[in-house]
Amino acid sequence: MRTQSIAADSATVSANGARRWEQGHPWIYRSDVLKRPVSPPGAVLVHNERGRPLGVALWSPMSEIALRLLDSNPDAPLDLTWWRDRLATAITRRAPIGEHANAYRLVHGEADMCPSLVCDRYDRWLVVQLMSAGIEQFRDEIVTVLMELTEPLGILARNDVPLRAKEGLATEVELLAGEVPREIEIIEHGARYLAAPWDGQKTGAFLDQRENRVAAAARARGRALDCFSYHGSFAIHLAARAQHVIALDVSAEALGRAARNSALNGFTNIELVEANAFEFLKAQQRARERYDTIVLDPPAFAKTRASVPSAIRGYKEINLRAMRLLTSGGTLFTASCSFHLSMPLFLDMLRAAAADSGRRLALREVRGQPLDHPGIVTVPETSYLKSAVLEALD
User: Fold this and answer.
1) Is 119 considered catalytic here?
2) What is the average per-residue pLDDT within 361-371?
3) Pair 82, 92: CB distance under 8 Å
4) Annotated catalytic residue: which of 114, 119, 227, 337?
Protein backbone atom coordinates (compact mmCIF):
# COMPACT_ATOMS: atom_id res chain seq x y z
CA MET A 1 0.00 0.00 0.00
CA ARG A 2 1.48 3.34 -1.05
CA THR A 3 1.69 6.37 1.24
CA GLN A 4 0.83 9.78 -0.23
CA SER A 5 3.86 12.04 -0.09
CA ILE A 6 3.17 15.66 0.84
CA ALA A 7 6.75 16.97 0.97
CA ALA A 8 7.28 17.04 -2.78
CA ASP A 9 4.98 20.00 -3.43
CA SER A 10 3.25 22.85 -1.66
CA ALA A 11 0.82 25.71 -2.11
CA THR A 12 0.96 29.28 -0.86
CA VAL A 13 -2.32 30.94 0.01
CA SER A 14 -3.43 34.52 0.60
CA ALA A 15 -4.24 36.02 3.98
CA ASN A 16 -7.93 35.60 3.12
CA GLY A 17 -7.44 31.91 2.38
CA ALA A 18 -5.49 31.35 5.58
CA ARG A 19 -8.20 33.19 7.52
CA ARG A 20 -10.83 30.71 6.36
CA TRP A 21 -8.91 27.86 7.95
CA GLU A 22 -8.39 29.90 11.14
CA GLN A 23 -12.14 30.49 11.32
CA GLY A 24 -12.94 26.78 11.02
CA HIS A 25 -13.82 26.40 7.33
CA PRO A 26 -11.78 23.76 5.44
CA TRP A 27 -12.03 25.22 1.91
CA ILE A 28 -9.61 27.55 0.14
CA TYR A 29 -10.77 28.76 -3.24
CA ARG A 30 -8.65 28.90 -6.37
CA SER A 31 -8.60 32.71 -6.27
CA ASP A 32 -6.81 32.60 -2.90
CA VAL A 33 -4.01 30.30 -4.06
CA LEU A 34 -1.00 32.53 -4.73
CA LYS A 35 1.37 29.71 -5.62
CA ARG A 36 -0.18 26.65 -7.20
CA PRO A 37 1.32 23.20 -6.74
CA VAL A 38 2.75 21.76 -9.93
CA SER A 39 1.89 18.20 -8.91
CA PRO A 40 -1.24 16.30 -9.99
CA PRO A 41 -4.23 15.95 -7.62
CA GLY A 42 -3.50 14.55 -4.19
CA ALA A 43 -2.30 16.09 -0.95
CA VAL A 44 0.00 19.10 -0.56
CA LEU A 45 1.53 21.16 2.20
CA VAL A 46 -0.01 24.63 2.51
CA HIS A 47 1.86 27.79 3.58
CA ASN A 48 0.71 31.32 4.25
CA GLU A 49 2.29 34.32 2.54
CA ARG A 50 5.05 34.46 5.16
CA GLY A 51 6.00 30.84 4.56
CA ARG A 52 4.50 29.44 7.75
CA PRO A 53 3.06 25.92 7.24
CA LEU A 54 -0.69 25.82 7.89
CA GLY A 55 -1.42 22.14 7.35
CA VAL A 56 -2.03 19.46 4.77
CA ALA A 57 -4.82 19.74 2.21
CA LEU A 58 -6.39 17.87 -0.67
CA TRP A 59 -5.38 19.54 -3.93
CA SER A 60 -7.80 19.74 -6.88
CA PRO A 61 -6.21 21.61 -9.83
CA MET A 62 -9.43 21.97 -11.87
CA SER A 63 -11.81 22.81 -9.06
CA GLU A 64 -12.99 26.19 -7.85
CA ILE A 65 -12.36 24.71 -4.38
CA ALA A 66 -8.64 24.21 -4.87
CA LEU A 67 -7.64 23.14 -1.35
CA ARG A 68 -9.57 21.21 1.30
CA LEU A 69 -7.98 20.98 4.74
CA LEU A 70 -7.22 17.44 5.89
CA ASP A 71 -4.96 18.03 8.89
CA SER A 72 -3.62 21.17 10.56
CA ASN A 73 -0.49 19.20 11.42
CA PRO A 74 1.90 19.88 8.50
CA ASP A 75 3.73 16.61 9.28
CA ALA A 76 0.63 14.40 9.06
CA PRO A 77 1.71 11.26 7.11
CA LEU A 78 -1.71 10.46 5.55
CA ASP A 79 -0.87 6.77 5.68
CA LEU A 80 -3.14 3.85 6.56
CA THR A 81 -2.84 4.59 10.28
CA TRP A 82 -3.88 8.20 9.73
CA TRP A 83 -6.92 7.18 7.69
CA ARG A 84 -7.81 4.43 10.16
CA ASP A 85 -7.88 6.92 13.05
CA ARG A 86 -9.89 9.52 11.12
CA LEU A 87 -12.50 7.09 9.77
CA ALA A 88 -12.79 5.16 13.04
CA THR A 89 -13.64 8.38 14.87
CA ALA A 90 -16.46 9.13 12.44
CA ILE A 91 -17.82 5.59 12.49
CA THR A 92 -17.75 5.30 16.29
CA ARG A 93 -19.79 8.51 16.58
CA ARG A 94 -22.67 6.76 14.76
CA ALA A 95 -22.74 3.66 16.96
CA PRO A 96 -25.99 4.58 18.81
CA ILE A 97 -27.95 4.62 15.54
CA GLY A 98 -27.34 0.91 15.06
CA GLU A 99 -29.73 0.17 17.91
CA HIS A 100 -32.75 1.12 15.80
CA ALA A 101 -31.59 1.21 12.18
CA ASN A 102 -29.31 -0.75 9.86
CA ALA A 103 -28.79 2.09 7.36
CA TYR A 104 -27.09 5.39 8.16
CA ARG A 105 -24.24 7.66 7.12
CA LEU A 106 -20.81 6.72 8.44
CA VAL A 107 -18.85 9.65 7.00
CA HIS A 108 -20.35 13.06 6.25
CA GLY A 109 -17.53 14.74 4.34
CA GLU A 110 -16.28 18.03 5.77
CA ALA A 111 -18.37 17.54 8.92
CA ASP A 112 -16.17 14.54 9.81
CA MET A 113 -12.94 16.17 8.64
CA CYS A 114 -12.96 13.91 5.59
CA PRO A 115 -13.62 16.56 2.93
CA SER A 116 -15.45 15.42 -0.21
CA LEU A 117 -15.87 11.86 1.13
CA VAL A 118 -19.28 10.32 1.83
CA CYS A 119 -19.82 6.80 3.12
CA ASP A 120 -23.24 5.28 3.84
CA ARG A 121 -23.96 1.93 5.43
CA TYR A 122 -26.80 -0.19 4.07
CA ASP A 123 -26.98 -3.21 6.35
CA ARG A 124 -23.87 -5.27 5.46
CA TRP A 125 -22.81 -3.12 2.50
CA LEU A 126 -21.24 0.31 2.03
CA VAL A 127 -21.77 2.96 -0.62
CA VAL A 128 -19.15 5.68 -0.99
CA GLN A 129 -18.79 8.90 -2.97
CA LEU A 130 -15.38 10.37 -3.72
CA MET A 131 -16.24 13.87 -4.87
CA SER A 132 -12.93 15.62 -5.44
CA ALA A 133 -9.80 14.92 -7.45
CA GLY A 134 -7.78 15.11 -4.24
CA ILE A 135 -9.76 12.50 -2.31
CA GLU A 136 -9.78 10.21 -5.36
CA GLN A 137 -6.04 9.73 -4.91
CA PHE A 138 -6.69 8.10 -1.54
CA ARG A 139 -9.24 5.61 -2.81
CA ASP A 140 -7.09 2.58 -2.01
CA GLU A 141 -6.42 3.67 1.56
CA ILE A 142 -10.06 4.53 2.21
CA VAL A 143 -11.36 1.23 0.84
CA THR A 144 -8.74 -0.77 2.77
CA VAL A 145 -9.58 0.94 6.06
CA LEU A 146 -13.35 0.70 5.56
CA MET A 147 -12.98 -3.03 4.92
CA GLU A 148 -10.98 -3.39 8.14
CA LEU A 149 -13.29 -1.30 10.32
CA THR A 150 -16.72 -2.46 9.13
CA GLU A 151 -16.09 -5.82 7.38
CA PRO A 152 -18.75 -5.20 4.72
CA LEU A 153 -19.76 -7.75 2.10
CA GLY A 154 -19.11 -5.16 -0.58
CA ILE A 155 -18.36 -1.49 -1.29
CA LEU A 156 -19.98 0.40 -4.16
CA ALA A 157 -18.86 3.81 -5.44
CA ARG A 158 -21.77 6.03 -6.47
CA ASN A 159 -19.47 8.39 -8.32
CA ASP A 160 -22.17 9.41 -10.78
CA VAL A 161 -22.56 12.89 -9.26
CA PRO A 162 -22.14 15.94 -11.57
CA LEU A 163 -19.71 17.50 -9.09
CA ARG A 164 -17.03 15.03 -10.16
CA ALA A 165 -17.08 16.35 -13.72
CA LYS A 166 -16.03 19.75 -12.40
CA GLU A 167 -13.06 18.00 -10.80
CA GLY A 168 -12.03 16.40 -14.08
CA LEU A 169 -13.15 12.96 -12.87
CA ALA A 170 -15.27 10.29 -14.51
CA THR A 171 -18.90 10.08 -13.41
CA GLU A 172 -19.68 6.40 -12.96
CA VAL A 173 -20.99 3.70 -10.66
CA GLU A 174 -18.24 1.26 -9.80
CA LEU A 175 -17.90 -1.79 -7.57
CA LEU A 176 -14.82 -1.32 -5.40
CA ALA A 177 -14.89 -4.49 -3.28
CA GLY A 178 -16.92 -7.67 -2.88
CA GLU A 179 -20.50 -7.69 -4.20
CA VAL A 180 -23.38 -5.27 -3.65
CA PRO A 181 -26.98 -6.31 -4.48
CA ARG A 182 -29.31 -4.17 -6.57
CA GLU A 183 -31.69 -3.86 -3.61
CA ILE A 184 -31.07 -3.99 0.12
CA GLU A 185 -33.76 -4.33 2.79
CA ILE A 186 -33.52 -1.55 5.33
CA ILE A 187 -35.01 -1.50 8.82
CA GLU A 188 -35.47 1.78 10.68
CA HIS A 189 -37.48 2.11 13.87
CA GLY A 190 -39.46 -1.01 12.99
CA ALA A 191 -40.31 0.03 9.41
CA ARG A 192 -38.86 -1.82 6.42
CA TYR A 193 -38.09 -0.62 2.91
CA LEU A 194 -35.89 -1.45 -0.06
CA ALA A 195 -32.91 0.76 -0.85
CA ALA A 196 -31.47 0.86 -4.38
CA PRO A 197 -27.71 1.47 -4.05
CA TRP A 198 -26.93 1.09 -7.77
CA ASP A 199 -29.52 3.45 -9.22
CA GLY A 200 -31.57 5.05 -6.43
CA GLN A 201 -31.48 8.69 -5.37
CA LYS A 202 -28.37 9.82 -3.51
CA THR A 203 -26.56 6.62 -2.46
CA GLY A 204 -29.72 4.50 -2.59
CA ALA A 205 -32.15 6.11 -0.15
CA PHE A 206 -32.84 9.31 1.77
CA LEU A 207 -31.09 8.42 5.01
CA ASP A 208 -31.11 12.01 6.26
CA GLN A 209 -34.89 11.90 6.80
CA ARG A 210 -34.81 8.80 9.01
CA GLU A 211 -35.58 10.54 12.32
CA ASN A 212 -37.97 12.98 10.65
CA ARG A 213 -40.08 10.08 9.40
CA VAL A 214 -40.46 8.96 13.00
CA ALA A 215 -41.33 12.49 14.13
CA ALA A 216 -43.98 12.86 11.42
CA ALA A 217 -45.47 9.46 12.24
CA ALA A 218 -45.75 10.34 15.93
CA ARG A 219 -48.38 12.96 15.05
CA ALA A 220 -50.06 11.06 12.21
CA ARG A 221 -53.78 10.32 12.34
CA GLY A 222 -56.87 10.00 10.18
CA ARG A 223 -56.47 10.77 6.50
CA ALA A 224 -52.82 11.37 5.51
CA LEU A 225 -51.10 12.67 2.41
CA ASP A 226 -47.41 12.09 1.63
CA CYS A 227 -46.33 14.38 -1.22
CA PHE A 228 -43.12 13.70 -3.20
CA SER A 229 -43.30 10.23 -1.70
CA TYR A 230 -40.56 8.64 -3.84
CA HIS A 231 -40.24 5.07 -2.47
CA GLY A 232 -42.88 5.68 0.20
CA SER A 233 -40.59 5.88 3.23
CA PHE A 234 -42.66 8.58 4.94
CA ALA A 235 -45.93 6.89 3.90
CA ILE A 236 -44.87 3.61 5.51
CA HIS A 237 -44.25 5.31 8.84
CA LEU A 238 -47.52 7.27 8.59
CA ALA A 239 -49.50 4.13 7.78
CA ALA A 240 -48.79 2.63 11.19
CA ARG A 241 -50.95 5.34 12.83
CA ALA A 242 -53.08 6.97 10.11
CA GLN A 243 -56.28 5.41 8.87
CA HIS A 244 -55.53 5.98 5.19
CA VAL A 245 -52.40 7.30 3.43
CA ILE A 246 -52.05 8.66 -0.10
CA ALA A 247 -48.48 8.31 -1.36
CA LEU A 248 -48.07 10.85 -4.16
CA ASP A 249 -45.23 10.99 -6.67
CA VAL A 250 -44.74 11.99 -10.30
CA SER A 251 -42.63 8.88 -11.01
CA ALA A 252 -44.39 5.61 -11.78
CA GLU A 253 -41.11 3.77 -11.24
CA ALA A 254 -40.70 5.25 -7.76
CA LEU A 255 -44.28 4.34 -6.88
CA GLY A 256 -43.63 0.79 -8.02
CA ARG A 257 -40.99 0.42 -5.35
CA ALA A 258 -43.30 2.21 -2.88
CA ALA A 259 -45.90 -0.50 -3.56
CA ARG A 260 -43.35 -3.19 -2.79
CA ASN A 261 -42.30 -1.38 0.37
CA SER A 262 -45.92 -1.14 1.47
CA ALA A 263 -46.38 -4.88 0.94
CA LEU A 264 -43.12 -5.55 2.75
CA ASN A 265 -44.65 -4.00 5.87
CA GLY A 266 -48.04 -5.63 5.39
CA PHE A 267 -49.91 -2.34 5.00
CA THR A 268 -53.14 -2.23 3.01
CA ASN A 269 -54.05 1.36 3.85
CA ILE A 270 -51.57 3.06 1.47
CA GLU A 271 -52.97 4.35 -1.83
CA LEU A 272 -50.45 5.17 -4.57
CA VAL A 273 -51.19 8.17 -6.79
CA GLU A 274 -49.05 9.16 -9.78
CA ALA A 275 -49.38 12.93 -10.19
CA ASN A 276 -47.59 16.26 -10.12
CA ALA A 277 -47.77 17.47 -6.52
CA PHE A 278 -48.54 21.08 -7.44
CA GLU A 279 -51.41 20.09 -9.69
CA PHE A 280 -52.73 17.51 -7.23
CA LEU A 281 -52.80 19.98 -4.36
CA LYS A 282 -54.60 22.54 -6.55
CA ALA A 283 -57.23 19.96 -7.53
CA GLN A 284 -57.69 18.83 -3.94
CA GLN A 285 -58.23 22.41 -2.82
CA ARG A 286 -60.82 23.01 -5.54
CA ALA A 287 -62.58 19.81 -4.46
CA ARG A 288 -62.55 21.02 -0.82
CA GLU A 289 -60.77 17.86 0.34
CA ARG A 290 -59.26 17.77 3.82
CA TYR A 291 -56.39 15.84 5.39
CA ASP A 292 -55.47 15.28 9.03
CA THR A 293 -51.78 14.76 8.26
CA ILE A 294 -49.70 16.11 5.37
CA VAL A 295 -46.01 15.57 4.61
CA LEU A 296 -44.16 17.80 2.16
CA ASP A 297 -40.68 16.50 1.37
CA PRO A 298 -39.87 17.98 -2.05
CA PRO A 299 -36.59 17.79 -3.96
CA ALA A 300 -34.25 20.77 -3.76
CA PHE A 301 -35.92 23.69 -5.53
CA ALA A 302 -32.92 26.01 -5.01
CA LYS A 303 -29.90 24.37 -6.60
CA THR A 304 -28.02 27.69 -6.94
CA ARG A 305 -28.02 30.97 -5.05
CA ALA A 306 -29.56 32.69 -8.07
CA SER A 307 -32.55 30.32 -8.00
CA VAL A 308 -33.52 31.12 -4.40
CA PRO A 309 -36.27 33.68 -5.19
CA SER A 310 -38.07 31.32 -7.59
CA ALA A 311 -37.54 28.43 -5.19
CA ILE A 312 -39.16 30.37 -2.35
CA ARG A 313 -42.19 30.96 -4.57
CA GLY A 314 -42.42 27.21 -5.24
CA TYR A 315 -42.03 26.28 -1.57
CA LYS A 316 -44.59 28.89 -0.57
CA GLU A 317 -47.14 27.62 -3.10
CA ILE A 318 -47.07 23.98 -2.01
CA ASN A 319 -47.05 24.90 1.69
CA LEU A 320 -49.90 27.38 1.25
CA ARG A 321 -52.03 24.76 -0.49
CA ALA A 322 -51.17 22.11 2.11
CA MET A 323 -52.09 24.49 4.92
CA ARG A 324 -55.51 25.11 3.35
CA LEU A 325 -56.09 21.34 3.07
CA LEU A 326 -55.52 20.64 6.77
CA THR A 327 -58.39 19.75 9.06
CA SER A 328 -58.73 21.63 12.33
CA GLY A 329 -56.07 20.12 14.57
CA GLY A 330 -54.30 18.65 11.54
CA THR A 331 -50.52 18.44 11.25
CA LEU A 332 -48.21 19.55 8.45
CA PHE A 333 -44.66 18.22 8.38
CA THR A 334 -42.73 20.26 5.81
CA ALA A 335 -39.08 20.12 4.79
CA SER A 336 -36.49 21.59 2.45
CA CYS A 337 -33.18 20.03 1.44
CA SER A 338 -32.00 23.15 -0.44
CA PHE A 339 -28.73 24.36 1.09
CA HIS A 340 -29.20 27.81 -0.45
CA LEU A 341 -32.54 28.18 1.35
CA SER A 342 -31.36 28.95 4.88
CA MET A 343 -33.38 28.16 7.98
CA PRO A 344 -34.37 31.85 8.43
CA LEU A 345 -35.56 32.01 4.80
CA PHE A 346 -37.43 28.71 5.26
CA LEU A 347 -39.25 29.99 8.33
CA ASP A 348 -39.97 33.33 6.64
CA MET A 349 -41.52 31.41 3.74
CA LEU A 350 -43.73 29.45 6.14
CA ARG A 351 -44.84 32.64 7.87
CA ALA A 352 -45.79 34.17 4.52
CA ALA A 353 -47.67 31.03 3.47
CA ALA A 354 -49.49 30.87 6.80
CA ALA A 355 -50.52 34.52 6.51
CA ASP A 356 -51.96 33.93 3.03
CA SER A 357 -53.69 30.73 4.08
CA GLY A 358 -56.05 32.48 6.46
CA ARG A 359 -55.39 29.74 9.04
CA ARG A 360 -54.00 29.93 12.57
CA LEU A 361 -51.01 27.64 12.49
CA ALA A 362 -48.88 26.81 15.52
CA LEU A 363 -45.19 26.05 15.03
CA ARG A 364 -44.79 22.92 17.13
CA GLU A 365 -41.24 21.93 16.21
CA VAL A 366 -38.26 23.02 14.11
CA ARG A 367 -35.92 20.22 13.10
CA GLY A 368 -32.48 19.95 11.51
CA GLN A 369 -30.21 17.07 10.56
CA PRO A 370 -29.77 13.76 12.43
CA LEU A 371 -26.74 12.47 14.30
CA ASP A 372 -25.16 10.88 11.24
CA HIS A 373 -25.44 14.08 9.15
CA PRO A 374 -23.86 16.63 11.51
CA GLY A 375 -24.00 20.27 10.46
CA ILE A 376 -20.87 22.12 11.56
CA VAL A 377 -21.51 25.71 12.65
CA THR A 378 -18.40 27.06 10.91
CA VAL A 379 -19.04 25.02 7.75
CA PRO A 380 -22.54 26.01 6.59
CA GLU A 381 -22.28 23.77 3.52
CA THR A 382 -22.63 20.74 5.82
CA SER A 383 -26.12 21.93 6.86
CA TYR A 384 -28.82 21.71 4.22
CA LEU A 385 -31.85 19.90 5.66
CA LYS A 386 -34.43 21.82 7.64
CA SER A 387 -38.01 21.02 8.56
CA ALA A 388 -40.93 22.19 10.66
CA VAL A 389 -44.02 20.70 12.24
CA LEU A 390 -47.13 22.90 12.12
CA GLU A 391 -50.54 22.36 13.69
CA ALA A 392 -53.76 23.97 12.41
CA LEU A 393 -55.60 25.50 15.35
CA ASP A 394 -58.80 26.38 13.47
Assistant:
1) no
2) 97
3) no
4) 337
Q: How far apart are CA 369 and CA 109, in angstroms?
A: 14
CA dist 80 and 4 (Å) reads 10
127 vs 77, 107, 124, 202, CA distance in Å?
26, 11, 10, 10
Question: Do 196 and 204 touch, CB atoms closer than 8 A?
Answer: yes
Compute and round to an integer the Cα radius of gyration of the chain. Answer: 23
> Is the entire prediction scored with pTM above 0.90?
yes
Work out the pLDDT band at 8, boundaries 50, 70, 90. Answer: low
| Pairwise CA distance, residues 224 & 318, whole Å | 16
| Predicted local distance difference test score (pLDDT) of residue 7 | 47
* pLDDT tens readout for residues 296-317: 999 999 888 899 999 999 999 9
CATH architecture of the domain with residue range 10-71: Roll (2.30)
C-alpha dist (Å) from residue 196 to 163, 202, 206, 306: 21, 10, 11, 32
Report domain extents, the chain.
Answer: 10-71, 80-178, 206-392
Cα 303–Cα 307–Cα 313 angle in degrees, nearest 5 = 110
Give Cβ neighbours of residue 307 (< 8 Å, ≥ 6 apart).
301, 340
Fold held by 80-178 = Transcription Regulator spoIIAA (3.30.750)
CATH number of 206-392: 3.40.50.150
Between CA 123 and CA 257 the distance in angstroms is 19
In single-letter form, the type of residue at position 347 comes to L
| Under 8 Å between Cβ of 361 and 391 | yes
Q: Tell me, what DSSP letter sits at residue 101?
A: B
Residue 167, burial from CB neighbour count under 10 angstroms (0-12, 13-18, 19+): buried
